[in-house]
What does this fold into?
Amino acid sequence: TISLTLSIGIGASVASLKELGDLAQSSLDLALGRGGDQVAIKQPNGKVKFYGGKTNPMEKRTRVRARVISHALKEIVSESSNVIIMGHK
It folds into this structure.
């Protein structure tokens, strides 16, 4: 069997399409970071409402969270002019 989940990010009450897109993407990242299978609606004032998320989030949380973090890191690195990578103990 295949499990199917749906995550939706919505930006609300913004005049500019750019800001609306940014709010929607931020909402989607929040929904996925919380385990997915839910809707996140973000207002310009930063308030977020969540709906859904009734499936077992711990089952897929690690995989989803790793994907969200890797996408965010990829964007930060690609938008930066200098990137320094250091090892640690």
User: Anything to note?
Assistant: The longest strand covers residues 38-42. The chain has one domain: 8-79. Residues 8-79 form one domain. The two ends are 42 Å apart (CA to CA).
